[in-house]
């Protein structure tokens, strides 16, 4: 885990500056040292590198798509489009021609050059556009971006189909791999201009992403900035020596691989940040739920105890008041125990095991025999879990206090999720007047809030049965 101090040492600006310094050093060493060449013949390795780059680009595009679904920002849509185009250029237009021998290598070279350049344009547009959340109706406007991008691709494909026979060679055919020991700026002027334009685009994107990451502390944007630094440096290498051959591994390819590896680091940090946010949100939700329970249960019971204690001072002979006071104190004690149990319970303990232990503890506390039929592997939401615990405790207390039960059975089934609490007490007539101490309204309301159906059946002399089901 990276501490705040480490984050301070590696600010977005410093991280990008270090990447730029390393790129400059590598470029100087390759241009100066005669033993290091710009290009090496290795078709299989070239196909592997391009495939890895494409897969990383698609992974990051998928992560950014998750962001876009929540925020609907134009920046993220442009970034998705740019990454997908770069992935297409890497995989379909470079890796496949390198792995499969073909006669149309010249067309693939022009295609990959143009599609990569279009991807770079979209990435720099994403870096420059505002990162603010979209206004209502912005999603419809964003679709125009996708349509325009698709139209551009269709236009490029149509232009290629018409002019395929007239396309000139992108690089000189007489350039030999032995000449790669020194810079050799040669090739079609359009190719050289495209590489220079790619360098400028990625430089602008690196600056913009660095500024945004500094302002927003966005981990993915921090690593996007470093990716753009190395991607721009790769264009310098492509400019210094021809690079479009599909059977050659270029030093620019190595720099580009390093840029995608760092982008993969950014993706990992994005996933880590997502799960940390989810964990924090879950903890906050548990705290809010516990606070609601304490307010609705323990706080109200303690308030009731204080009020009844004042009344008892004026009427010390009132036994009914004393019983009510004792009952309220017992409920307050149950609430505090429930809160302590929720805070100290292991997070990875199976829900069925926790419920069984809770029922056994309640049985010992109220001196009643308990029988459980609970499935161990039961998946429940926090709302369902809370409702099951509360209703089980309330039903068991009612069975002992009001029904004088000797045995209480608790069952929990998985499909469909259903809770059953049944006792052998004296029962009551459900249609009659029931003491508020029974807590029947509380159980019904808890089941309703948790999205469950609640049913109570009771027969005088045969006990009571409470069932809560989720269908």
Describe the structure.
- With 471 residues, the chain is of the alpha+beta class.
- It folds into 2 domains: 10-281; 349-471, Heat Shock Protein 90.
- It has 13 helices and 7 strands.
Outline of this structure?
The protein has 471 residues and is of the alpha+beta class.
List the keywords.
13 helices; 7 strands; 8% strand; 68% helix; alpha+beta; Heat Shock Protein 90; five-stranded mixed sheet; two-stranded antiparallel sheet; 471 residues
Topology summary:
Elements: H1 4-9, H2 12-32, E1 39-41, H3 43-71, H4 74-99, H5 105-128, H6 138-163, H7 189-216, H8 219-240, E2 248-250, H9 251-314, H10 319-344, H11 351-366, E3 369-374, H12 382-401, E4 407-413, E5 418-423, H13 440-449, E6 453-459, E7 463-469
Parallel strand pairs: 3-4
Antiparallel strand pairs: 1-2, 4-5, 5-7, 6-7
Helix pairs in contact: 2-8, 3-4, 3-9, 4-5, 4-6, 5-7, 7-8, 8-9, 9-10, 11-12, 12-13
């Amino acid at each position: 885990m990276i501490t705040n101090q480490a984050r301070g040492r590696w600010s977005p600006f410093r991280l990008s500056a270090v990447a730029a310094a390393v790129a400059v050093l590598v470029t100087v060493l390759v241009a100066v040292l005669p033993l290091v060449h710009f290009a090496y013949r290795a078709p299989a390795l070239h196909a592997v590198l391009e495939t890895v780059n494409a897969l990383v680009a698609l992974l990051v595009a998928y992560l950014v798509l998750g962001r876009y679904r929540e925020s609907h920002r134009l920046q993220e849509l442009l970034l998705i489009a740019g990454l997908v185009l770069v992935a297409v250029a890497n995989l379909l237009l470079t890796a496949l021609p390198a792995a499969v021998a073909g006669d149309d290598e010249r067309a693939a070279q022009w295609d990959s050059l143009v599609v990569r350049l279009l991807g770079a344009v979209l990435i720099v547009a994403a870096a420059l556009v505002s990162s603010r959340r979209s206004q209502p109706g912005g999603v419809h406007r964003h679709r125009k971006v996708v349509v325009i991008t698709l139209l551009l691709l269709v236009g490029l494909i149509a232009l290629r189909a018409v002019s395929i026979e007239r396309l000139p060679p992108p690089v000189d055919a007489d350039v030999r791999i032995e000449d790669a020991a020194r810079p050799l700026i040669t090739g079609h002027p359009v190719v050289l201009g495209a590489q220079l334009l790619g360098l400028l685009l990625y430089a602008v994107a690196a600056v913009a992403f660095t500024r945004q990451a500094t302002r927003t502390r966005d981990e993915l944007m921090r690593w996007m900035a470093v990716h753009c630094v190395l991607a721009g440096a790769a264009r310098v290498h492509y400019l210094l020596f021809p690079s479009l051959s599909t059977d050659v591994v270029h030093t620019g390819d190595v720099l580009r691989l390093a840029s995608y590896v760092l982008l993969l680091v950014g993706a990992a940090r994005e996933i880590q940040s997502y799960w940390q946010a989810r964990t924090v949100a879950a903890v906050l939700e548990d705290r809010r739920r516990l606070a609601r329970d304490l307010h609705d249960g323990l706080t109200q019971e303690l308030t009731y105890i204080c009020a009844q204690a004042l009344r008892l001072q004026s009427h010390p002979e009132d036994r009914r008041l004393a019983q009510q006071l004792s009952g309220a104190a017992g409920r307050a004690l149950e609430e505090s125990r429930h809160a302590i149990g929720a805070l100290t319970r292991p997070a990875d303990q199976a829900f069925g095991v926790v419920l069984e232990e809770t029922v056994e503890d309640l049985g010992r506390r109220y001196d009643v025999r308990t029988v459980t039929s609970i499935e161990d592997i039961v998946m429940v939401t926090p709302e369902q879990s809370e409702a099951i615990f509360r209703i089980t405790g309330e039903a068991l207390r009612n069975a002992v206090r009001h029904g004088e039960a000797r045995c209480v059975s608790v069952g929990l089934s998985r499909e469909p999720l259903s809770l059953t609490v049944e006792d052998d007490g004296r029962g009551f007539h459900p249609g009659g007047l029931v003491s508020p101490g029974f807590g029947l309204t509380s159980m019904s309301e808890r089941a309703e809030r948790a999205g469950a159906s609640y049913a109570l059946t009771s027969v005088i002399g045969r006990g009571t049965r409470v069932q809560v089901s989720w269908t």
